[in-house]
């Protein structure tokens, strides 16, 4: 798989103009014209850059793999360093918006370098992009216009600091707007939780637990056709618990039933539930229930 260590090499591969700064670039059509189009297709590639882009397609569709996405109303995308990118058979299209690309070293040593790792949306897939309302779109555009002003001006000792400050503000707004999107898509969120529970239940019923151990969140997310981070963030917003917590609760509920069998030791229960180490199962059970598996058995086996 081809990997690009510099921003210039990455943009050259995309057949886009060279950046004004060796570690930061901005393409914008907010005032007039269209965004430059990258090459139509690419095998899997990676790079050391962050990408924040807003795309509003005026003509044509964008295809990732076998899925075609229509972003006529505009969507905000986020890509993190070393994330695998691949696109095929992209139609020729005209698009409005902006595309910000910066090398991870551009923010090294700054507060943003620590904060940016906390934003889950950099791990979301294309179908989980942030769809902006007209008002939200305007707020983002104002921030990008300020970034563009600094980017196009003669650089001085404050330029980089100001650009990074604006980037931090942009990401904070993105976090706020994603929260709104989760809230407004309650029906979808509820459906995702139901599908999550059904997927875990099907895994247990199929006997895979004893054969392959506890499923990873990544495995479950893949079966649900969503990214791991989006699954966790959506469930967290909808229920207050992450996907890992929901899986743990399912395991604990199963454990409660098995523990009532007096012929099985706590260790046997742990192994039956896919835990490699019984002490970890006991600690998790006590953390969630307030009592140990043995205490639970003694308390309820006589009732």
UniProtKB/TrEMBL annotation:
SUPFAM superfamilies: Homeodomain-like (SSF46689). Keywords: DNA-binding, Transcription, Transcription regulation. PROSITE patterns: HTH_ARAC_FAMILY_2 (PS01124). It holds the Pfam family HTH_18. Signal peptide: none annotated. It comes from the Bacteria. InterPro entries: Homeodomain-like_sf, HTH_AraC, Tscrpt_reg_AraC-type_HTH. PANTHER family: ARAC-FAMILY TRANSCRIPTIONAL REGULATOR (PTHR43280), TRANSCRIPTIONAL REGULATORY PROTEIN (PTHR43280:SF32). This is Transcriptional regulator. The lineage of its organism: Bacteria, Pseudomonadati, Bacteroidota, Cytophagia, Cytophagales.
